[in-house]
């Protein structure tokens, strides 16, 4: 079965091409006139594990009321139809890589579709019915039989978005941790042309930004009587958002927050000092998967990356290209069915190892020279201590002398390596 690939209502489509139905071979999929309530749906069975009648996601009674949603697409100041990106009419897509997320992917897609023009799901080797649920919910699906890793899945989704003429993209995690109501906030700097890459940060305070926004709205969005009652609902939403932000910060375990700070610091050190000074950007949530990319960022996704390293690699690469990066506050939820696909400690050390390798390439004196100098000084001090003990008390510390000798030798090797690598790095940059 084939059909014209359109947006949710057939009006916001960015592509007129035809694509074949989902066949498991990385093709885009479209189910014509399908719905989650269809009688003949493969998911609607008495014995199905995905029972829509008893599902917690009740489309009729859901708190997510698309008709009465606080985000009014027609009256919103975030007008994608009248905005432009790079001189083109903007077409925004959401790219969601996922693995075994059949429980949440349907509701995530339905909540995301009103915020964007199209949703692209990259099913990265799921063994459950993630792809089927995603199709029925109205998303375009790219499926891989074997897991390729998050970096590969994201880059493949971005390639698909560019092929369909999209000029901006929102990246979300497929586990449902991100609030789709924050999409407008994350996309706004990209649509306005203020940034090429926007990162949704869990650790930026909402208060100052919301107060400024409310101050501007009080003057610009009053009703005809001048009472300014038009923004009551938005003010209440801001209070809820602040509350969510504080809750999500309190729920982050201390060891994970420590790891996050370490990875942020390491990521900020990856770029050359000159680049960091020119960009004046320091990440507060380098591992956030909630991001928005503009045309320049989409065109520069040509860097090498593996797995979960893509978040840090993206920041380093975009800064090196001179693109503008900013962060906006978001809130997340942690009460999701599949919290972690990988052990947080293993994940953290893996990303840190990759970052340290990149720092060693771009700043060898920092990685090799400083540790070498510290080892050399430690060996020198311990050697002086051994000699002093023998001279005053005729006590000879054989073990201390052995440690001192090794520290001095290793320290000198590291210092020499750092100097050589730094010279090579400078030659390559000049060349």
From TrEMBL:
Alphabetized GO MF terms: transferase activity
TM regions (residue ranges): 365-387, 399-421
Keyword Transmembrane helix included in the entry's annotation: yes
Classification via InterPro entries: Glyco_trans_2-like, Glycosyltransferase_2, Nucleotide-diphossugar_trans
Biased composition (Basic and acidic residues): 41-82
Glycosyltransferase 2-like domain residues: 94-222
Keyword Protease (UniProt): no
One matching Pfam family: Glycos_transf_2
Stretch list, region Disordered: 33-86, 208-253
UniProt-listed SUPFAM superfamilies: Nucleotide-diphospho-sugar transferases
Entry keywords, A to Z: Membrane, Transferase, Transmembrane, Transmembrane helix
UniProt protein name: Glycosyl transferase family 2
Protein's organism: Methanoplanus limicola DSM 2279
High-level lineage: Archaea, Methanobacteriati, Methanobacteriota, Stenosarchaea group, Methanomicrobia
